[in-house]
Amino acid sequence: MRFGTDILRQADTLAAFTEEPPGVTRTYLTPQHRQAGDCIAALMREAGMDASYDALGNVVGRYAADRPGAPVVMTGSHMDSVRNAGRYDGVFGILTAIACVRDLHRRGKRLPFDFEVVAFGDEEGVRFGVTLIGSKAMGGSFDPAWLDAKDAAGTTLREALVAFGGDPDGWRALDRRGKGVVAYVESHIEQGPVLLDEGLPVGVVTAIASGARMRVEVTGLAGHAGTVPMGSRQDALAAAAEMVLAVERIASAPGEGGAALVGTVGTIDARPGAINVIPQVVSFTVDVRSGDDVARRRATAVMRDAFDAIATQRRVKVASEVFYELPAAPCDASLQDAPAASVARQGLPVRRLPSGAGHDAMVFPPVCPIAMLFVRCGAGGISHHPDETMTAEDAEVATSVFLDFLETWTPPNADDA
Questions:
Q1: DSSP state of 40
Q2: Nearest to 210 by CA among 161, 266, 256
Q3: Spatial CB neighbours of 329, under 8 Å, sequence gap ≥ 6
Q4: How far is CA 153 from each of CA 93, 94, 149, 157, 159, rounded to the nearest angstrom?
Q5: Start-to-end CA span in the chain (Å)
Q6: Contact at 8 Å (CB) between 392 and 4?
Q7: Closest by Cα among 305, 301, 263 to 285
Q8: Residues 309, 243: Cα–Cα separation, whole Å
Q9: Spatial separation of the C-alpha atoms in residues 120 and 142, rounded to whole Å
Q10: In whole angstroms, what is the distance from residue 19 CA to residue 26 CA?
């Protein structure tokens, strides 16, 4: 086996760089970020690349082309994690690309493009509440106001970057628009059960879903749990429960044009929080995703209308606010055909599927066309969990597909980028 065993071993090594052992928790600009970044940079250099940290703590490896002035093809994924995560989310996309470069370098082969592999420092947004920090800087959508975002200890992103050795004002130089980048192609575990259920090791992504997040606050009237009759209550939690079910009902229906939707209530808080007091204020969050922006916006509006109707019926007040939106990112039709052809050359069926999760690739359309390759994960497709898993055999297949793409794809003229 050329690739799979080593990739899983390297993922095990990176999993040891965690804030909360034995699980994997690795957040942005922490000592564990530094440990993982140093390890990845060493792997890149050993594989034949130049590698260094950039101003925001991303690790960038470059494998020079067979001629000067060549266009650039980018790949990569994130080295940070959610709390109590698995060990392949993000990390696999970095390690599989390094394995490809190692094989090319061993054979003395250069590509007709500069190949950049980026280990992004923050995609998950766990520490500062801002997602895709590293890739958004490269995609030209970094917001300097994020430098004032604070973590739970009150440390700002600006302060953390300085302590890490980065440059808070260096984000401007990371923008890759107009810099000769002709493609961004990312490999990632699926984080779902589709490939597993269909018995396929890899798939080609058609689009990365859009997302919207809402904060909802329901205000009723507190009262004694034993003395207020049921018909007289203004129970904020009972109303919120009905709203949660409305989210499930609306997200379960097809969106515009039959587009798939998903909706999740991920957090909920009831106050005053006493066992013998009717809840007066309930706050919850809603996450709505779809591969179609119109369908997602429509579903979000329908949910907010449903919240208002429920509040009126139950004699409570409700306030809802959309605080985060990210548009869908369709994968370029022509570019996604290239990894699809590489899958076929491995003797495998070509399965195309959308991504319900967000990825670093989704911020790159202003820079260049994007494509993604999905890899099967086991344990029912679970991810963001210690049970996340993949096999060495699937890592081998996915890396072989990616290497075939690198060796067979012909980039357009860099002037078109």
A1: H
A2: 256
A3: 207, 208, 361, 362, 363, 364, 365, 370
A4: 31, 30, 11, 11, 12
A5: 37
A6: yes
A7: 263
A8: 10
A9: 14
A10: 6
Q: Is the pTM of this model over 0.85?
A: yes
Kind plus residue range of the DSSP H or E element containing 61: strand 59-63
How many Å apart are CA 214 and CA 284, to the nearest integer?
8
* Alpha carbon distance 376, 414 (integer Å): 33
Residues in the chain: 417
Exposure on the CB side of residue 265, measured as CA atoms within 13 A: 19
Residue type, 90: G
Return the bridge partners of 308, or none.
none
Contact assessment for residue 90 and residue 123, using Cβ atoms and an 8 Å cutoff: yes
Map tokens 């998903």 to a residue. 262
Hey, is 276 helix, strand or coil?
A: coil
Q: Specify the pairing of strand 50-53 against strand 72-78.
A: unpaired
d(CA 20, CA 17): 9
Distance between CA atoms of residues 288 and 393, nearest Å: 34
Report the C-alpha gap between 269 and 218 in whole angstroms.
10
Cα 200 → chain centroid: 22
Per-residue pLDDT of the chain (417 residues; tens, 9 = 90+): 899 999 999 999 999 999 999 889 999 999 999 999 999 999 999 999 999 999 999 999 999 999 999 999 999 999 999 999 999 999 999 999 999 999 999 999 999 999 999 999 999 999 998 999 999 999 999 999 999 999 999 999 999 999 999 999 999 999 999 999 999 999 999 999 999 999 999 999 999 988 899 999 999 999 999 999 999 999 999 999 999 999 999 999 977 666 789 999 999 999 999 999 999 999 999 999 998 899 999 999 999 999 999 999 999 999 999 988 888 899 999 999 999 999 999 999 999 998 988 899 999 999 999 999 999 999 999 999 999 999 999 999 999 999 999 999 998 864 444
CA distances from 377 to 7, 86, 120 (A): 14, 11, 22
Backbone torsions φ then ψ of 353, nearest 5 degrees = -155, 150
How far is Cα 213 from Cα 287, in angstroms, rounded to an integer?
Answer: 5
- What tokens were used for 6? 């080593």
Cis status, amide bond into 272, omega within 30 of 0: yes
Count of CB atoms situated within 10 Å of the CB of 195 = 21
